[in-house]
Amino acid sequence: MKPKIIVYKKVDKKVLELIEDTCKVVYFEKLDSQNFPVFLEELKDAEGLIGSGLKVDHELLDQAPQLKIVCNISVGYDNLDLTALAERRIMATNTPDVLNDTVADTIMGLILSTARRIPELDQWVKTGQWESGLGEKWFGVDVHHKVLGIIGMGGIGSDVAKRAHYGFDMEILYHNRSRNEAAEQKYGATYCSLEELLKKSDFVCLMTPLTPQTVNLIGKREFELMKESAIFINASRGKTVDEEALIHALKTGQIYGAGLDVFVQEPVNMDNPLLSMNNVVTLPHIGSATYETRFKMAMIAATNLVTGLKGDVPPNLLK
Ligand SMILES: NC(=O)c1ccc[n+]([C@@H]2O[C@H](COP(=O)([O-])OP(=O)(O)OC[C@H]3O[C@@H](n4cnc5c(N)ncnc54)[C@H](O)[C@@H]3O)[C@@H](O)[C@H]2O)c1
Ligand SMILES: O=C(O)[C@H](O)CO
């Protein structure tokens, strides 16, 4: 008999077909408060779970006694309690590397649109305010030849460094748990302390995973260390930043602007002060969201799932 698995995110037909070859699939395009009780019922005899963002902890696992594997369609896995999963001998996987270029493109988009005020000026043109010459109050700041500080020089951080080095002649500083010699050799990146990076960078780009060590990694003290002209970019996770401190830094001119793909609360609350600031460019957590990359991520997650359920080691097993 085919093992029963649950897909809890909208995926391409080809992804479902790959899984259906060896599994019986129960499909939820997305989970919400309406269908969650049905999902929990289905979980009782499910052997696999594939999707992204669902909190998988002891409480959920208590409802899933047959589970053998949990496959994230994401590189981040802060939604997974790996200790709880290991205690129950349940495998967990993610989708690293395949999304590096796409997320790095998004980050460059945030850097450029914040520095050159693209969304603001777009609105200015579309609302008929472009009457004559462009006054200085609409000028932005240069990106090329500036200093980019990358906190978290992993897969995505390295691809941001590549773009900044080759495309924009930027000087790259980075802070990481350990030295990244490849980024140093290929993109001329210089390793430095977090404090030095914050003091010297024109653009500060946060790209660490969310872990107990990185919660509120950037807070009041860190914003105080940044230049008044600094632009802060976050595409990691909302909780790596103390959002109150960020709001304060932007309101008081401690930093120049911010480009954000992630928020503490997602979807973001409409009363979040960040949404009414002209010097903030926002995106709805779409770093990896192109058709091509999301398809590849889902295919990789499906391959992890069927490999694990076959009894082999899945390619992206998390330890
Ligand atoms: N916005 C999006 O759509 C999006 C897309 C993909 C990934 N992400 C987030 O970005 C994160 C990074 O992705 P990646 O593929 O580059 O991961 P990665 O593991 O390749 O790189 C992360 C880097 O951060 C470093 N790091 C970890 N803890 C640190 C700390 N305390 N101080 C300094 N450096 C630290 C690691 O050493 C590593 O080099 C993911 O975990 C995810 O949360 C967001
Ligand atoms: O971690 C990731 O891959 C992205 O945030 C998409 O969920």
Précis, in short:
The chain is of the alpha/beta class. The protein has helices at 13-20, 36-43, 58-61, 82-87, 100-115, 118-126, 155-168, 181-187, 194-200, 220-225, 243-251, 291-310, and strands at residues 4-7, 24-27, 48-51, 69-72, 91-93, 147-151, 171-175, 190-191, 203-206, 231-234, 257-260, 280-282. Strands 8-7-6-9-10-11-12 form a seven-stranded parallel β-sheet, with helices on both faces.
Topology:
Layout: E1 4-7, H1 13-20, E2 24-27, H2 36-43, E3 48-51, H3 58-61, E4 69-72, H4 82-87, E5 91-93, H5 100-115, H6 118-126, E6 147-151, H7 155-168, E7 171-175, H8 181-187, E8 190-191, H9 194-200, E9 203-206, H10 220-225, E10 231-234, H11 243-251, E11 257-260, E12 280-282, H12 291-310
Helix pairs in contact: 1-12, 5-7
This protein binds nicotinamide-adenine-dinucleotide (NAD) and (2R)-2,3-dihydroxypropanoic acid (DGY).
The site of (2R)-2,3-dihydroxypropanoic acid has 7 residues, from loops.
CATH fold name of the largest domain: Rossmann fold
Under CATH at level 1, the class of the largest domain stands as Alpha Beta
Associated small molecules: nicotinamide-adenine-dinucleotide, (2R)-2,3-dihydroxypropanoic acid
The 3D shape can be described as globular
Average pLDDT taken over every residue? 97
End-to-end C-alpha gap: 29 Å
What's the CATH H-level homologous superfamily of the largest domain? NAD(P)-binding Rossmann-like Domain
Order of helices and strands: EHEHEHEHEHHEHEHEHEHEHEEH
Architecture overview:
This protein has 319 residues and is of the alpha/beta class. The protein folds into 2 domains: 112 residues, NAD(P)-binding Rossmann-like Domain (Rossmann fold, 3-Layer(aba) Sandwich), CATH 3.40.50.720; 183 residues, Rossmann fold (3-Layer(aba) Sandwich). The chain contains 12 helices and 12 strands. Strands 8-7-6-9-10-11-12 form a 7-stranded parallel beta sheet, with helices on both faces. A 5-stranded parallel beta sheet has the order 2-1-3-4-5, with helices on both faces. Helix 7 links the parallel strand 6 and strand 7. Helix 1 runs parallel beside helix 12 and helix 5 packs across helix 7. The longest helix has 20 residues. The radius of gyration is 21 Å and the shape is globular. The structure holds nicotinamide-adenine-dinucleotide (NAD) and (2R)-2,3-dihydroxypropanoic acid. The site of nicotinamide-adenine-dinucleotide has 30 residues, from helix 7.
